[in-house]
Design goal:
Distance between the termini: 102 Å
Strand content: 5-15%
GO molecular function, one term: ATP binding
Protein name: Luminal-binding protein
Number of helices: 5
CATH architecture: Up-down Bundle
Keywords: ATP-binding, Nucleotide-binding
CATH topology: Substrate Binding Domain Of Dnak, Chain:A, Domain 2
InterPro entries: HSP70_C_sf, HSP70_peptide-bd_sf, Hsp_70_fam
Largest sheet: 2 strands, antiparallel
Radius of gyration: 32 Å
Strand order of the largest sheet: 1-2
Number of strands: 2
CATH class: Mainly Alpha
Number of domains: 1
Length: 147
């Protein structure tokens, strides 16, 4: 009657009956404690979100760097680039990877900035591969198209 929940269990085999009454315990949390815990959980959610974004930014930058490294290892694609472009791209990739190793605690904004720096160097060079330009291949290709 005074309990919040009354439960009765009867073992049909032995006929034994047990009763349990669940009551509001004095050790229950007060509304103030509940509010504090909810606020802490919300703060943690914000912190978790920031950490997730940081990890995603790091993975994006690192993944892009390794993608470029693999592109440079691909003889068919890298053959379309001038040696100077290969050196520039290799240097930019190595610089980013080194920076990532040295700055494990970098925040999302720093990581995004470094990614953008690499992308700024890489995009013009990569476009040469897909345009068939760069190095000696561009001159030979243009001459072959002329009548």
């Amino acid at each position: 009657v005074d309990g919040i929940l009354n439960v009765r269990a009867k073992d049909k085999g032995t006929g034994t009956t047990e009763d349990i009454t669940i009551t509001r315990d004095k050790a229950s949390l007060s509304q103030e404690e509940i509010d504090r815990m909810v606020a802490e959980a919300e703060e943690m959610a914000e912190s978790d979100k920031a950490q997730k974004e940081k990890i995603e930014a790091r993975n994006k930058a690192e993944g892009y760097a390794y993608q470029l490294k693999n592109l440079l290892k691909d003889d068919k694609k890298s053959a379309k680039l001038a040696d100077e472009d290969k050196e520039t791209l290799t240097g930019a990739v190595d610089e980013l990877l080194s920076w990532l190793d040295e700055n494990a605690d970098a925040d999302k904004e720093q990581l995004d900035e470094k990614y953008a720096e690499l992308e700024k160097v890489a995009q013009p060079i990569i476009s040469k591969i897909y345009q068939g330009a760069g190095g000696e291949g561009a001159e030979g290709g243009a001459a072959a198209d002329e009548p």
